Amino acid sequence: MADITDSGQPQVSRRQLVKFAGVGATFVAAGSVAAPAQADDEQERGRGSRNRSWRAGDHHVHSEYSGDFDTSVTPPRFHKGADAVYPIVTNAIMAKNFGLTWAMCTDHGGPTHSKVNLEQAYPDLLLSRKLVPEVLQFWGMEFDAPALDHHTLMIPRHDDEAKMLFELESRFAKRDAFPNDPGRDTEAKMVEFLKAAKDMRQKPLVIAHHAARSATGLGVYGQDTPREFRNGNDAAPDVYVGFEGSPGHQAGPLVGGARGGYGSHPTYGGFDQMTARVGGLWDSLLGEGRRWWITATSDSHVHWTRGGSDFWPGEYSKTYVHARQDYADIMDGLRNGRIFVTTGDLVTSLDVTASNRGRKAAAGESLTVRRRDRNDVEIEICFRPLKGKNGNGVRPEIRRVDLIVGEITGPNANRDADTNPTTKVVARFGPDQWRRDGDEYYVRHTLRDVQTNLYARVRGTGTNEDEPLADGKESPWDDLWFYSNPVFVHRV
């Protein structure tokens, strides 16, 4: 259980916040930016006695500890603020102001950075937890994954969390060794890292960042490949659990750049091609029955109004987890797929359930359908639009909701497979097909005579595009989407 909660905590004074925010930081005191309405409208949806609700967060945020190193001296000398500029507490303040209840600083590594994390960044995190107790602040980093692009390494909240990160970063991060050790930058080393993480009593989480940012075409991948995702997930299925469906740096077009920093091949509606392409890589992994989830993050370094290409944590992208306001339960939700993601606050809740003969399963869960029973499966989609205004000062409008279904056919002999030809948009729903009940909208669809194992997932948009188009220089605020994670159906 968490040692802090989001209720009954004293407010931090403006003087305290200014003192700890740091000189030169772009700073907004608590309460001076209106949080999206979901902070007030949050509805408890306890399943049984668990009393969970949808809680928004961001697991990919940078602080001033994403710096650089002077390697002309031994040991290397660390300089704060070279890549990202905000103190940890400033990020927490902004996360709170934009409606997040949990967040995580994921700073870049480098030669001997494990020691910087342990001796400098971690004490600042502890202070930030005290100053902004309304936001659960996880410890971890943007891990320099061997042979791959960056990944979230999220450490469970416990007394030895700092030592745990130090052990994993110092042993396995490919850039931590000084002098450089090429032997760390191999696929075998990544698998070794994941196996070591899996065997820890307190298991971390690993989630790939901007997975196709280095891709040069549709299906022409760069640093991260389908084979590597499969190998890592096989090695540690309860640790290596997904990738960013919607990467950060979404404010790029507002300053003349590309969304997500995807300069070689674009995102689609702000989502990585691995997620946005129906029947693409994500569906290929789900079609094997893998529990592989997507998230959405800010990757905040410097706000776009201050020369960067970023939004604040929670300002544009949110990862919602169905959980209690509790470190352990939020990690459990991330580990087990109780997640939906949205940009521009299109929705503040999204429940997708599959049911058959009184049995029901939600996102991340499995519904069992007995072969001797009637094989119709009822899919219910329940969503809540934003009641107030989003970070752009407008109330976004949902124009369509899509139900996407694919078959689960088992392991693919081709480790580089990136398609699932069975995956289809089986139904599209416009406003005239939604049933309203208070602040929520419902859609139901029956999958008739289900004869195969399958999964169902949902997406929605504020655009009129049937499929998300390749992104250009349009404002990200004009191209909003949300995605659920899948619910599984198995016949036995």
TrEMBL record:
InterPro entries: Pol/histidinol_Pase-like, TAT_signal. It comes from Lentzea miocenica. Residues 55-65 have a biased composition (Basic and acidic residues). Residues 34-70 are annotated as: Disordered. This is Phosphoesterase.
